[in-house]
Amino acid sequence: MTEPKEPLFSVLQNQALGESHAQLSWEGSFQDYLDLVERTPGVARNAWQRMLDMVESHGFAEPLRPGGARRWRLFDDPFDDGRDAVFGLDEPLDQLVQTLRAGARGLGPERRILLLHGPVGSSKSTIARILKRGLEAYSQTEEGALYTFLWDVDGERQESPMNQEPLLLVPQEARPDLEQRLNEEWDKDYPITIRGELDPVSRYYWALLMGRYEGDWTKVLEHVRVRRLVLSEANRVGIGTFQPKDEKNQDSTELTGDINYRLIAEFGSDSDPRAFNFDGEFNVANRGMLEFVEVLKLDVAFLYDLLGATQEHTIKPKKFAQTHIDEVILGHTNEPEYKKLQNNELMEAFRDRTIKIDVPYNLAHDDEVKIYRRQFCPESFPDKSIAPHTLEVAALWSCLTRIDEPTHSNLTLLQKARLYNGEEVSGFGPEHVKEMRQESEREGMYGISPRYVQDKIATTLVSNRQAITPLDVLDSLQQGLQHHSLISNEETRKRYVQLLSYAREEYEEIIKREVQVAVSADREATDRLCAKYIDNVKAYTTREKVIDTSGREHDPDERLMRSIERKIDIPESRKDDFRHELMNYIAALHLEGRQFDYRQNRRLTRALELKLFEDRRDTIQLTSLVSSVVDPSTRQKIQVIRDRLIEQYGYDEATAEMVLDHVADLFARGETKESPSDAA
């Protein structure tokens, strides 16, 4: 007999949740808070310091590519299983973190607007969203705890309307000693400071109680209750977002708050702070972060408020004195709006108060493909088969649209894209990549948006085909270019179409290599061929004879050696040097007690595979790969090739059939020669 299950509601109950709620609902006296601050001074950090510590709390990973920036793990989106993860922007994100670090130390950036600048769809809004979600989560941890206060006067409780730091209640003359005490045991590279004044409501109660107690501020503090503060954009606590609207329907009170006319009758004056709603975005975002969506579309009147908020850390609510704020202000804008700003002399003060951080498109297609793979994973389309390389080829094309033509005469655009992707290109290294990036400051700030590619992949996926290939997606991308709303001229359109042909050629080279390897994929045969090549090279360099398996001697097989060396781009004039270098390398390995393994050399491995393919392709007429009229022996060999494609490269039956069909057509047209990319 099955035991009765525990009621579902009981299962959902969790003691840990209750404990968490108790911690987040903590309330105590001002004295309790001073004791807490002395034990953990970090609760009194300002917004910039808290933002920096939040990012650093998630840690970082070392650079993926030589000379690259480390990757801050916050931007992997740990809050939603990576749904909003940002890929390929490690350098601008590291620049953002370093700016936060300088601001946390009070070196100047804390008095600036952080301006994320880039083309549409380059993840500017996503970065802001992750920062906001990070602050929300961090404020619920013990490490990220922060506090505010309320007034308990004559049986009524009044919150600090801007959730201010309780230490602002300490008079100016007492603050230096308090700061010194807090920083004695503080182990961060920035100091804890107490800056700013109370908001108008708190000033009102302070004046009221100081009069009542004849200037004894310690008695005033007995009316203060301190409580834990949890930041939440949904609850409009510590995180604000401001978006420009129609100028006729928006004014600056949306930033600084407005009079509550219903309360004027109760309090008798429109200058009574209790009759004012401190619910503007600057007020709401105090202690946290304020995001300005498309900040440069703001009316000039709003920008004046923004300048004071950044430079002086103050805002001017209607009918009240300058009011202190403590928040990180982050805006984002696209290229056309920023150009307008540069050309507007009246906006010089705004430009002077911004720190621009460029957020470009990806230039490395391995990073770009991560964006597409997140949306088009197999689990999302169980009834569809996506052929290998489909997303990779689309990503390659989109990155090609964002890269300048190379200035080096020996470098093609495709090779430049490979260098940016961290791949090897003969004759070029990381120092060349750095130089090219410095020459091409505009790269990544133009080109095709990831959104366009995602839309076209989605359109292809919902077609009636059971399986889609890179060629299907490339066709969809090309058709969409005819009506792309963001392509400004015909010359750009033609260039993008030309780049599609580059991506197509690259894909065809990839699948030709895969089929060639599948045809020649015999580990023992490759080992034997390599051993035979090494024996011939050894005999050639030592001027000896080669002894075959039957014990007969003969001269080194020059034809064999050159057939392999040509496939790794060794010219006739350098064959002697190459052969001596190879034998010296093998001898050095032997002295170290190691054996030569050709598989560690990608170019030599590829050359051996191509040689085997050439030797074997006559035994399988490639044009018969998809023929229905073949003899049983050939059919068996074809099935072996298909199985190898499935096992080695991740194809299924349908997509393997498609690839064999296309490669057979390429070989039928005589396109069998290895390309420069094969030799590279």
Low-confidence stretches: 672-680
- The number of strands is 19
Largest sheet: 5 strands, parallel
Output mean pLDDT: 87
**Overall 3D geometry?**
elongated
| Rg measurement, Å | 34 Å
**Helical stretch count?**
29
How are strands sequenced across the largest beta sheet? 8-11-14-4-15
Distance between the termini: 70 Å
The fraction of residues assigned to DSSP E strands is 5-15%
Percent of residues in helices comes to: 40-55%
Structural class: alpha/beta
Description of the structure:
By secondary structure, the chain is an alpha/beta fold. Among the domains are: 148-168 and 195-330, Rossmann fold; 365-509, no CATH class; 518-679, no CATH class. It contains 29 helices and 19 strands. The strands form seven sheets. It has a five-stranded parallel sheet. A four-stranded antiparallel sheet has the order 1-7-5-6. The radius of gyration is 34 Å and the shape is elongated. Mean pLDDT is 87; it is low at 672-680.
